[in-house]
Design goal:
Rossmann fold; lipase activity; two-stranded antiparallel sheet; 11 strands; alpha/beta; single chain
Length: 360
């Protein structure tokens, strides 16, 4: 019951408060089933105990997993690049938009990202109505981590793999488009987290080289380390606002794990704080309970915020940080961002409401 009360504090920030106990119970059920369950805190200890073999640089190791069943979040179909039969037999929803989800460093298909966002889309679909999407999870896990126990060599290898993973993702989208699975390139929306945001940018850049303009990229706290300077053989090509028609960015650990640049058509800063050089999310301040490094936790909040925006769209940012608590809310945050709203947006989410998110 305590968790429900805390959640309702958060909900009151994001959307209109419900006056019905039945509606409140329904909201709690949905969050438990579709948002909380897949979110597992990937703590540093897990990173050092992975046993996955050496990091790959082969784009053929990138997998594409399609989810279209709103009543079973574990039910997926694997699409294979250049395998036309895999496309013909796939449970694709005709004419529906595509949501392409790309995880970050050390993650994979079954990690909290993409799980938390994939499940939010499926929950939205289960409500019926016009919400029908093809959710495609890009699993580049074999290119994103290895069993080595030294952090920097693994990360640099993953950074170098951003480009081949992105190119293969772009090739797959083009393959689906050419074979009628994707109705229009404008209906493709990539959501990438951390290094996955830069993978998304490379996918968009590849498609641009083929004369195709990707519809939208949402970058969830794009990775910062090794993307600030041009270091030969170390840094990768970063996401830019030119990689899709519309690019929206969500910063949750500005200046540490997240890039310290406004790189989108719109850049959102939830809980920006008063230190512009080091953004920290309030729910991450209790390091003992979160079992995560402070900035790792803040970085990982980006997919959680975005997942909430899919289910509860009434989240808005303010274009003026100085009057954050009193300004008109002009920029809609997350999934339902309006591309006519450009520039920088800030939103203040009370830490009391965010306490629940560590249980997601």
């Amino acid at each position: 019951m305590r968790h429900l009360e805390l959640f309702l504090v958060l909900l009151s920030v994001f959307t209109k408060a419900s006056s019905s106990d039945r509606e409140k119970a329904d909201i709690e059920r949905k969050l438990i089933k579709h948002v909380k369950e897949p979110y597992r805190t990937e703590i540093l200890e897990d990173f050092f105990t992975r046993k996955t073999g050496e990091v790959s640089s082969n784009p053929d190791d990138v997998r594409f997993c399609l989810y279209t069943n709103p009543y079973d979040s574990d039910d997926f179909y694997e699409l294979r690049y250049k395998d036309l039969n895999s496309v013909k037999n796939a449970p694709i929803i005709p004419q529906a938009p595509w949501k392409v989800l790309i995880h970050g460093f050390t993650q994979s298909q079954n990690s909290s990202m993409p799980g938390v966002i994939k499940n939010a889309y499926l929950e939205a679909m289960s409500k019926g109505g016009d919400t029908q999407v093809n959710v495609l999870v890009v699993d580049w896990g074999k290119l994103a981590y290895s069993s080595q126990d030294v952090l920097i060599p693994i990360y640099t290898a993953a950074v170098r793999n951003v480009e081949p993973a992105g190119n293969r993702t772009g090739e797959m989208i083009q393959f689906l488009l050419e074979n009628g699975a994707v109705a229009s390139i404008s209906k493709v929306h990539i959501v990438g987290f951390s290094l996955g945001a830069h993978v998304a940018g490379n996918a968009g850049n590849y498609l641009k080289s083929q004369g195709l303009s990707l519809g939208r990229i949402s970058g969830l706290d794009p990775a910062g380390p090794l993307f600030y300077a041009n270091i030969p053989n170390f840094n990768g090509r970063q996401l830019t606002h030119e990689d899709a028609v519309d690019v929206d960015i969500y910063h949750t650990s500005w200046g540490s794990y997240g890039i310290a640049e406004n790189i989108g058509d719109a850049d959102f800063h939830p809980n920006p704080g008063f230190n512009p050089l080091l953004q920290t999310q309030p729910s991450c301040l209790n390091l003992v309970k979160t079992k995560m490094l402070l900035q790792v936790c803040s970085h990982n909040m980006a997919p959680v915020f975005y997942a909430v925006s899919i289910l509860y769209p009434e989240i808005y940012g303010c274009s003026n940080f100085a009057i954050l608590r009193t300004c008109d809310k002009t920029g809609q945050f997350g999934e339902f961002w309006n591309s006519n709203s450009t520039g920088n947006f800030y939103l203040d989410i009370p830490s009391s409401g965010l306490l629940l998110l560590k249980h997601l």
